[in-house]
Design brief:
The protein contains 20 helices and 10 strands. With 484 residues, the protein is mainly α. The protein has 2 domains: 2-149 and 156-246 and 256-296, no CATH class; 321-483, no CATH class.
């Protein structure tokens, strides 16, 4: 890999590139041996052929669009391998990509400041972008390239003002952002990078049942404090650069070590993370993504919390009431049955308890059928977004062999050629991700989709017709294994 990835002399390593004057091309970079060993230090490896495979692609193209594509593809594969969540709607800016390739993951001198929080390698870069925001970023990047030589100081400062990004302010936003940032660090600096490992630990802590059940206690302030702590530790970790002499014969490199695990206690117990560098602007303002205006938030008021047992995420969805015609043209409402037949219980005995509880009304109404293709389409989600189980992922061919019909309900295929996971192989993280992904589609189908003939729900007057967001409920949705 050393020869294929990094064609180097003793003094320098150059990006493989051809002359091209197009505006979407990255500047030519020359990596010295000092930069190479800094990368090896951050990656926690002792040989250049152990650097993350993504650098092989970095060194064969200078197009920012190509870099963005390669980063996203690598993150998607890593998300499956590590069973982490991946935010698809991220637009990595040209500046961030340039900073990474230039071995400058920190902006400025590596001290955490509010002005540079969204620059270079930043957790704020892992917040999702809307289509309008992406177009605005592209417009600014084009303006920067076209005015690079004749730009005034005032114009330059105006372009800089748009770099600020809004931090996560809810538990779910924070969890996905942390996971995506961990994936980004993994694909750039490898699975041995200590900082990436510590970010992953924070993500796993956020998935603990104790933390999940307290989702509503994650205030915007706490989410921002966790985000800032990760940013500050990132600055400190990447400010340590190893020297080529640290890798000399007979020497054991002292790789940088992140102290990010010190906040795990605070994340687990939802306690404040007080940092002197925490920006005042995050205490009472929220910044529009890729924008320049700040709006003052009203004072936060805390309502008394209810006493008694608190609900968890895996509370069953509610079955809708069924409507039947009665004498005189009036209607009467009858609650659909909430009991499951013994035959159906036996059919679904293999399910993880979280999935069984969450989808219980869905299983009752549709007799255990999943209809995942239709559910995903209504939820405006894709098959590629579904979490997987590492055991059933063919990493070499990037093929997911998991049978989701079996994981979520009853698999009707007598000769199913996919893998049927046991309930013990299904993790809490998997359950959380897949339930949240399919919930919009499941809720719509509970309210609108005809019940399965022969079920108790159907016999009590469940709906026989309905229309979906994309047309009649009877419309065939192609593209998945549930069409049979």
């Amino acid at each position: 890999m050393a020869q294929a990835v990094l064609k180097m002399s003793e003094k320098q390593i150059k990006l493989t590139e051809q002359p091209d004057a197009r505006a979407d091309k990255a500047d030519k970079k020359v990596f010295t041996t000092y930069s190479l060993h800094a990368l090896m230090g951050w990656s926690g490896v002792t040989q250049e052929n152990m650097i993350a495979p993504l650098w092989a692609k970095f060194l064969t193209t200078k197009s920012y669009d190509d870099h963005r594509l390669n980063i996203h593809r690598a993150m998607k594969v890593m998300a499956r391998q590590k069973e982490m969540e991946y935010e698809h709607n991220i637009y990595f800016t040209d500046k961030m990509i340039k900073a990474i390739i230039s071995m400058a993951p920190n902006a400025g001198d590596g001290i955490a400041t509010f002005e540079s929080a969204a620059k270079a390698l930043s957790i704020l870069q892992c917040r999702p972008n809307s289509a309008n925001e992406v177009e605005e970023i592209k417009r600014r990047e084009k303006a920067e390239k076209e005015t690079r030589t004749g730009r005034s100081y005032t114009e330059a400062m105006q372009l800089e003002e748009g770099d600020m990004r809004a931090p996560a302010v809810t538990y779910r936003e924070l969890r996905v952002c942390v996971s995506s940032f961990g994936l980004l660090c993994y694909v750039i600096y490898g699975v041995d990078c200590d900082f990436a490992i510590k970010v992953h630990e924070i993500y796993k802590t956020l998935l603990l049942p104790k933390v999940l059940n307290q989702e509503r206690h994650f205030t915007p302030e706490l989410c921002k404090q966790i985000t800032w702590a990760i940013h500050e530790e990132k600055c400190e970790f990447f400010s340590t650069r190893l020297h080529p002499d640290d890798f000399g014969p007979g020497k054991t490199p002292q790789f940088p070590v992140s102290d990010l695990d010190e906040i795990l206690y605070h994340v687990k117990h939802l306690s404040p993370i007080l940092r002197k560098s925490f920006p005042d602007a995050w205490k009472d303002t929220v910044y529009a993504q890729a924008g320049t205006m700040a709006a003052t938030l009203p004072p936060v008021t805390f309502q008394p919390q209810p006493t008694g047992p608190q609900p968890t995420f895996y509370q069953p969805l509610t079955l809708p009431t069924s409507t039947t015609a009665s004498g005189g043209g009036s209607t009467s409402h009858q609650q659909a049955p909430n009991t499951m037949s013994n035959a159906l219980k036996k059919k679904l005995a293999h399910l993880h308890s979280g999935i069984a509880t969450f989808l219980r009304p869905f299983h009752i109404k549709f007799n255990g059928r999943v209809m995942l293709t239709k559910v995903l389409r209504i939820a405006k989600s894709e098959w590629s977004q579904l979490p997987t189980i590492k055991k059933y992922l063919d990493v070499t061919n990037n093929v997911n062999n998991l049978c989701y019909n079996h994981v979520l309900g009853h698999c009707p295929g007598k000769r199913c050629n996919r893998s049927h996971a046991t309930k013990d192989e299904v993790t809490e993280s998997f359950v959380l991700q897949i339930c949240q992904l399919i919930q919009p589609g499941v809720e719509w189908m509970l309210q609108n989709e005809p019940a399965a003939p022969g079920t108790d729900y159907f016999q009590t007057g469940g709906k026989r017709s309905g229309t979906g967001p994309d047309g009649p409920a009877q419309k065939q949705f192609k593209g998945g294994p549930d069409n049979a």
